[in-house]
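Methods — Computational structure assignment.
A single polypeptide chain was analysed. Its primary sequence is given first, followed by the predicted tertiary structure written as structure tokens.
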Amino acid sequence: MGFDSAWTDSAKAPGATSVIRIDDRGRCTFVPPSLVSFDAALAVIQTEASFSALRIVALDQPTIVPNLTSLRPVDRVAPSLISWLGGGVQPANRSKIGMFDDAAPVWRFKERLEATEDPEASRSASAGLFLMEVFPALALPSLGPAFCGRLLGPRYNPARRKTFKLAGWQAVIEVVRHLARTEAVDGLGEWADALAAVSIPKKADQDQLDAVLCALIGLHWQTAPREASIMIGDRMFGYMIAPASADVGARLKSAADKAGVSIDVENLGYSKRL
């Protein structure tokens, strides 16, 4: 399940959820995205319990933010790739009111969700509810190799009128189309075709597209070989999960080494249920 939360809980700017169900035979079925608040996202996640004993929520928002100011360790690594692609990363710290302060909706969401935040364990689990942090912009250069190059990241946020490129928007949709074919996700290709036909995309369209990307990241984490993904950081100070091609993985590992941030390393059995 992908959840693009939009970070704050605003009725005028909701997030979006998307679901990819996998049956006992390994067949994948796509559930089209919907715009949701944090509470509505909880309802979607709870409903999926009737379809599967194992649920993995891939959330496009920092899930562990212990630092009062400045950056999390993972936020020192991800920008090395994102800035090379021509984008930016919003750092997470507790001083950001409405996003990560003690009263921020994400903490209430996590408390009510009662998920296990252990991405590695989710790969081998046959049941349970798991949560992990993902970041579509970090995943796109691996999911769509054409984006992997200096300043080649797609500009597909319609809310940023000065930088938005329709060609970038369509290119991201084409990545989704490609994954619909290669991963054999029933219904996803048709949804992508319908989205591509929207002549003037809106921010809500992008939120739903990002929710679908989050779900695809979760699918990749669950079904692809472990070496095809990367975990930057850890579950004590914050982390991100992303698909990682050879080029992307090498760039992120180099940045992590320079910053002293762990890659694909667990905290000696540290596990936290939130």
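Note: Confidence is low (pLDDT under 50) at residues 267-274.
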